[in-house]
Design brief:
Helix content: 25-40%
Oligomer: single chain
Distance between the termini: 61 Å
Number of domains: 1
Strand content: 15-25%
Length: 239
Amino acid sequence: MLKRLISFLMTWALVALPLSAKEDKKETDRLDNCGTVLKEIMDIPDNIPQDLIDKAECVIVFPSVLKAAFIIGGSYGRGTMTCRTGEHFTGPWGAPTMMALEGGSVGFQIGGQATDFVLLVMNPRGAKAILHSKVKLGADASAAAGPKGRDAEAATDATLRAEVLTYSRARGLFAGISLEGSSLRPDNDANERVYHKKVEAESIVRKGAVAVPPSAQEMISTLNKKSPKNLSDPASLKE
C-alpha cells in the first residue's frame, strides 16, 4: 500500500511540474506583454497626457482582453498593476501585482478584436481600495474615460476628479473609454506563480515584499523613464 502511495505521488509530481512551469510561463509572458503594450502606448504622439501620468499613483495594464472573455461566465482579462513606492507614492515605480478585470459592458470593442486597456489610478484612496479587495468601477471607485493628447486641457472637472482614468487600444485606435460596471481585483494566485511564494497585492506594492521580476523590467523602466516623479499636490497624497 505504501509503495503504491509513493508511486502515485511521484507520478503526480512528474505531471504537476510541467503544468506548474506552463502556468509560470503564462504569467511571465503576460508581464512581458504588459511592458510592450505600455511602451507602445506611451510612445504614441497623441497618447495619455504627460500631466496625467505624472499625477498618477498607479498604472494598471490589461493586454489583449477579448470580448468573449467577458461574455463567458467566470472569464476575465488579466494583467498587472504597479504603483510608485514610498508611504505617499513619491518614490520610483515598484514591483507589480497581478490583477483581474471582470464583467462590465464591452460593446465598444470592434468585432472580436483583442483590446488593450491602460488604467491610471489617480489618488491614494483608489489605489488602496483596489489593492485590498474587488472594486467595482463607478461604484466603489469613481471612473471616467481618460482624456488624451490635448484633450486633457478640455477635460471636465468630473473627469479630473475621477479616481481611475481608463484607456483602450484596438486595431491601432487609441482612446479614452468607459469601463464603468467592470470590477478590478488582485489576482493573488497569479502573484504566487510570479514570485514563487504566497504574497498578497498590498505586501508587494506597499511593503516592498518582493523585487521587480525580470519579465516586468520593461514596464517599470518605461514608467521610471517617462514619469520619474509624482507631481500630484503633496496634500492629496496624504489621504
